[in-house]
Amino acid sequence: MCSSSSDSQTILKIVFLQLINFFLNQVSALGLDPSGARLVTGGYDYDVKFWDFAGMDASFKAFRSLQPCECHQIKSLQYSNTGDMILVVSGSSQAKVIDRDGFEVMECIKGDQYIVDMANTKGHTAMLHTGSWHPKIKGEFVTCSNDATVRTWEVENPKKQKSVFKPRTMQGKKVVPTTCTYSRDGNLIAAACQNGSIQIWDRNLTVHPKFHYKQAHDPGTDTSCVTFSYDGTVLASRGGDDTLKLWDIRQFNKPLFSASGLPTMFPMTDCCFSPDDKLIVTGTSVQRGCGSGKLVFFERRTFQRVYEIDITDASVVRCLWHPKLNQIMVGTGNGLAKVYYDPNKSQRGAKLCVVKTQRKAKQAETLTQDYIITPHALPMFREPRQRSTRKQLEKDRLDPLKSHKPEPPVAGPGRGGRVGTHGGTLSSYIVKNIALDKTDDSNPREAILRHAKAAEDNPYWVSPAYSKTQPKTMFAQVESDDEETKNEPEWKKRKI
C-alpha cells in the first residue's frame, strides 16, 4: 500500500539486513543501547547474545552468548538510559541486572508467597512479564508479575522493592498486569491488565491510579505492549484481541484511533513510535506454514495503514525503532533477528558491518614427525604376571598396610597425636616405683570383732531392742553337711 505522504516515501526505500541467530525458538527480547553501538537479543532457549555493529563483519556473528537466568526463557531486555546496564526479565520471579559485558550486577529478591497482602512482601512471588528502566533516574526500573503487582526497584537496594502498585478491577479485586512502562518524563507508570483495562499511576502515589480505562481491550486477552510517544501525550497499546489502539492521556475516556485485523500469537508483540513521532509500527503473527508475518506502519495523525513489509515464513515477535540510528530491529518467530534501514537516512548501526567483507580463515599446513610409543613396552605400563598365592601372601605380609600390622608403642615423648609411654622422665620413674599398692587384703571378720567388746560394755543399737524378749543371745545350731555332700554327684558339690 502506498501513500503520498513524505513519511511513507521514506519507508519505501527500506532495505533489510539479516542477523543469523541460532535460537531454537523465537526471538522474544530485543535491546539497543542509547548510542546504537550494541544489540542484545534473547530467546526461548534461555540464551542472551551480544552483537557489536562496529566489530562485526558480513558473517554477523555474536561476540558473546550467555544464560543469565539458567533455565528460564528471556522475556524482556532493555538497556539503561546510560547504556552501562541491561535489565533482564525472564520467566522467573526475580529480575536481574547485568553490565555491558554480561556480568551480573544485582538480582531482585524473591518475596514470600505465603503472605496474602502482596504489598507486605519484599519482592515478586510469581512469574515476571516485562520490565522497563526509568528514563531520567539512573538505577531505577519497574517490573510486573503474575502476583498482580507492579513494583519499582533500585539497583543499589536489591533486598527490597522501592514501591508497590496493585492493579484492581472496578469491584476492587486484584488483576494480573501483563505489561508496564514509564512515561517519557518518568512521572507516570502505565500497565495493561488481563481484564482488558489500562491503568496509569503517578509514580509517587501508589494507592489509586491516576487514569483508569476498564475496557481498553477485550477481557481475558493479554495486552502485549503499551508505549508512550516522544511528546508524552499519546499512549499506544497492542492488544491480544488483534487490535492496535491510540490513546490521549489528557482525555483518557475513549481511544483516539483503533486498528483491527492485526493477529498476534505471542505475549510480547511490540508497537513503537518513529523517531519523529509521525508513524507507529507493529508486527503480526501467522501460523507456521500458513503465510508470512508483516511489519505494519500506521500514520499517527490519521491512523491509516501506509506501508507493510512481509517477513518471509515467520511471525513478527519484537520490533524496535532506534531514534539515533533510524533503523528498525525485528525479532521473528523462526529465530532470526533482522535489521531494516534506509541507506540514505539511517546512520551507523548495521551500515558499519554490512560493508565489511567476511574474514577468510587462514589455512596453514605443517609437516610434523610424530613419535609412536607403544605403552606396553615401558616397564611402568607392563602388567605384572600372576604369581602363586603363597608368594603373594608372603609379599602382602611384609606390607604393613595390607597386613593391618598394628603400630608399635611410642618410645620416648609422644608424637603424631599419640601419647608417649611413662617413664621417659625422672619424675615419672620415681612415681612409678614408689606408688603404693592400694588393694585391701584385710579380714572383714576381724575388723568387725574389734568393736565387739565396746558394743558389749555399752550396748546402744541391737541389744536394747532384744533386752526383754530375748535377754540371752541365741544362735542357730551348726549342722554338719558332710554326710549329705558325700551322696551328691560331683557336679553339685561346692567348689572351693
TrEMBL record:
Q: Where is this region: Disordered?
A: 382-421, 473-496
What the entry lists under SUPFAM superfamilies is as follows:
WD40 repeat-like
InterPro entries found in the cross-reference section? WD40/YVTN_repeat-like_dom_sf (IPR015943), WD40_PAC1 (IPR020472), WD40_repeat_dom_sf (IPR036322), WD40_rpt (IPR001680), WD_repeat_GAD-1 (IPR051858)
Q: Where are the WD repeats?
A: 27-52, 121-163, 226-250
Residues in the signal sequence: 1-29
| Alphabetical keyword list | Repeat, Signal, WD repeat
List compositional bias (Basic and acidic residues) regions by residue number.
382-407, 486-496
Cite the SMART domains for this sequence.
WD40 (SM00320)
A Pfam family it matches = WD40
Keyword DNA-binding listed: no
Q: Which family does it belong to?
A: Belongs to the WD repeat GAD-1 family.
Q: Can you name this protein?
A: WD repeat-containing protein 70
Record organism: Sus scrofa
